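Researcher: Following up on the earlier apo prediction. This time include the ligand. It's flavin-adenine dinucleotide, with the SMILES given after the sequence.
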Amino acid sequence: MDFAPGPCMIAAMSDVDVLIAGGGLNGPTLALALAQAGLRVAVVDPRPADARAGDNFDGRAYALAVASQRLLKALGLWDGLAGDSQPIRQVKASQGRPGEGAAPFFLHFDSAEIEEGPVGFMLEDRFLYRALLRAMQDRVQHLTGLSVTDHQATGAGVEAVLSDGRRIRARLMVGADGRGSGVAARAGIRRQGWDYGQTALVTAIAHDRPHEGIAQQYFMATGPLAILPLPGNRSSVVWSETHDNARAIAALDDEAFLDVLRPRFGDYLGRISLAGARFTYPLSLSLAERYAADRVALVGDAAHGVHPIAGQGLNLGLRDVAALAEVLVDAARRGEDIGSELVLERYQGWRRFDATALALGMDGVNRLFGSDNPLLSAARGIGMGLVTAVPALRRGFMRQAAGLAVEPMPRLLTGQPL
Ligand SMILES: Cc1cc2nc3c(=O)[nH]c(=O)nc-3n(C[C@H](O)[C@H](O)[C@H](O)COP(=O)(O)OP(=O)(O)OC[C@H]3O[C@@H](n4cnc5c(N)ncnc54)[C@H](O)[C@@H]3O)c2cc1C
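Model: Understood. Below is the ligand-bound prediction.
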């Protein structure tokens, strides 16, 4: 490991500068950003080292906002990922009714209207995670097959206990350990949230006709169905249904599953067939009341687990990563204690409002569009009519979706290194 000399002046008292609980996507991305800037980082990841090597580990494909793509570029990952990504050129939303396919579009975003290029990029989990793993090698201690079972702030630092009994001292502990964050719970950070009563059925579909880079979202009373373009004639399907419906659909064999999907999917892409394994993800909202506590910071779903309706969960997490990495690296360069309250308050102040507002916004969209209530339907019609009729409003929404409306923008999200 090659560490720049003295980024954190009191680091010698600890084993690492930053200890990250969680080896999902946000933990490793943060680890990489910090390690590239010279901090000593370890990631504790409960999964065995080879668990995510297979193609069918996780069926998700992420709609990455332009700002997230710029972050991956700044970390030196994007050139290796671009070939496996699919630019999102248009987004169309419509009301969908089971058995009838999509109704006429009530919302249409075309990236040709903004100069920044595509609204975002679709990228499958398997490619992103593997790229992160490769880049972490030799830079970050990746402690696989282990979890953090306890941690305690010790004044000048934090000491964590791992599931094999090992103790690690750090200046700062980061909880990137998902919605059930143990780091947050031990730090006394309370959470609020609820179960959406929905489960997402996720798979990849092959189709006869090209998708032209168009992402589709059908809003149905039982939950939204997203059809998101992947490279080639393939699309990722995120189909949210009530828990009971989803359980019954998940139990069907592949042919019966396609028979239920076809009338919802419609025939605009010609014949469809399965192009990947099928996965289910129960959906919930889970918001931490604070993103920082004594020697602790939270990022990603540990801070805010949101509904996947607009594909913003990981994008929000990567905004946390970019902001926290910038705060910590700048503090270390100034010789500040990176785990101090003053430093962590800078991070919390930067991120909490944006993330909570977006999480609640996604919650509102799911309620507004997932209802047959005539009042909500009228509100929906007026709102969407406005967005469709006013180009400036439409461009504003597109920039928001592309992650380009964050103020102030962390350096990594503009593609600049730390
Ligand atoms: C169906 C679906 C589709 C989605 N689509 C999109 C999309 O298009 N775009 C987008 O931006 N987002 C999307 N998201 C959201 C995105 O998947 C999540 O926001 C993101 O994966 C969260 O990553 P994370 O690293 O914060 O948390 P997680 O992936 O939950 O990782 C947490 C990690 O912490 C580990 N852990 C738990 N306890 C401990 C412990 N005690 N010690 C150490 N480690 C621990 C866990 O094993 C896990 O590996 C989608 C989500 C779903 C469900």
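Model: Residues 341-369 form the longest helix (29 residues).
Researcher: Noted. I'll compare it with the apo version next.
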